[in-house]
Amino acid sequence: MKTRVFIDGKEGTTGLQIYERFQNRNDVEIMLIDEEKRKDVNERAKMINSSDITFLCLPDAAAIEAASLCTNPDVRIIDASTAHRTNPAWDYGFPELSEKHRENIRNSKRVANPGCYASGFISLVYPLVKAGVLPEDYPVTCHAVSGYSGGGKKMIAAMESENKTKEMYSPRQYALGQKHKHIPEMQAVCGLKYKPMFNPIVDDYYNGMVVSVPLVTRCLTKKYTPENIHEIMAEHYVGQHFVKVMELGGTETLPDGFIAANTLAGTNNMQIFVCGNEDQILLMSRFDNLGKGASGAAIQNMNIMLGINEATGLE
Ligand SMILES: NC(=O)C1=CN([C@@H]2O[C@H](COP(=O)(O)OP(=O)(O)OC[C@H]3O[C@@H](n4cnc5c(N)ncnc54)[C@H](OP(=O)(O)O)[C@@H]3O)[C@@H](O)[C@H]2O)C=CC1
Ligand SMILES: CC(=O)N[C@@H](CCC(=O)OP(=O)(O)O)C(=O)O
């Protein structure tokens, strides 16, 4: 029997990508809502309650509303929005973090898909807190660059409009007040005592991102070298299909010393780099904000929930 899937917000950036990634799958039946009724609460409630799995690809308020419309206890929900990521009643959809995360997702009725920047940050910080390398009170800082599709339909329209201003052709740093919506999940999932400083930059290309976390080795729980950190990261992600720890220093992958943010666009892969020297270590995570940062991760989570190969439809 096919899995009946409803995508609430199918006309948006994430919803459309999920829909497109299902096109070659014959184990899934996509439930289509009448175009004029796609924002009609009663019609959406009907669709949600007659699905096996519903994806929420909506602004936060609409995602909270959609979850409250679900009265059928058998329906499983995967929410791509920020709304439920630190809600303890929901499971955080990052299966590579630990066997427990994967098992929780497998058995879950409510999965919160990680934020794109948060995915990169957590992929770097979580293993080091867990291994006791990074003290919980470390003053973590993070810089990141994203393609403009991360801003959804509105930003895409602005970046592709004829009225694009001169500034929009250059990288633009934002969230200057340190209130970015991903900071709470970064702190909570990693178990950090204090909020990380987070400095995102959006640039003039469609998709792909790099998230960087610098570490000063004298402030770690003891003196660690890049080799030590690389070994810990490699061990943490050993055997993972989508998350790979690259060679130390990026010597083969980045021979010219540049890390471009768009090379994994269109994939669900994530590459982790450990660079630097014995005083200062730079950790970087590269992936697609629309892939492992959104729709790819959402489908990977669905595959795990269905008990099938997690890479189904994602190659
Ligand atoms: N873009 C990205 O890289 C990522 C986005 N996300 C998250 O996923 C969610 C969706 O983001 P994204 O796809 O970028 O956003 P978009 O703005 O591209 O799409 C949102 C969609 O939801 C629709 N919508 C809005 N309100 C309602 C409602 N009440 N009922 C039904 N549909 C509604 C919109 O309709 P209309 O077409 O009329 O505007 C639009 O089609 C957000 O919470 C976002 O934060 C998560 C990870 C990455
Ligand atoms: C470039 C850009 O604007 N990016 C978005 C984040 C995209 C994303 O992942 O948002 P979710 O929280 O829904 O996951 C932002 O900074 O708000």
Concise synopsis of the structure shown:
The protein has nine helices and 13 strands. With 315 residues, the protein is α/β, with parallel strands linked by helices.
Task: Name the CATH architecture of the largest domain.
Answer: 2-Layer Sandwich
- Tally the helices: what do you get? 9
Q: How is the biggest beta sheet arranged? A: 7 strands, mixed
Compute the gyration radius: what is it? 19 Å
Strand content: 15-25%
Strand order of the largest sheet: 8-9-7-10-13-12-11
Number of domains: 2
Distance between the termini: 23 Å
Element string (H = helix, E = strand): EHEHEHEEHEHEHEHEEHEEEH
Find the structural class using helix and strand composition.
alpha/beta
Overall helicity:
25-40%
Any overview of this molecule?
By secondary structure, this protein is of the alpha/beta class. It has 2 domains: 3-113 and 293-306, NAD(P)-binding Rossmann-like Domain (Rossmann fold); 116-289, 2-Layer Sandwich (Dihydrodipicolinate Reductase, domain 2), CATH 3.30.360. The chain has 9 helices and 13 strands. Strand 5, helix 4 and strand 6 form a beta-alpha-beta unit. The chain starts with a strand and ends in a 9-residue tail after the last helix. It binds NADPH dihydro-nicotinamide-adenine-dinucleotide phosphate and N-acetyl-L-glutamyl 5-phosphate (X2W). NADPH dihydro-nicotinamide-adenine-dinucleotide phosphate binds at residues 8-9, 11-15, 38-39, 57-60, 62, 80-82, 115-116, 149-150, 152-153, 289-290, 293-294.
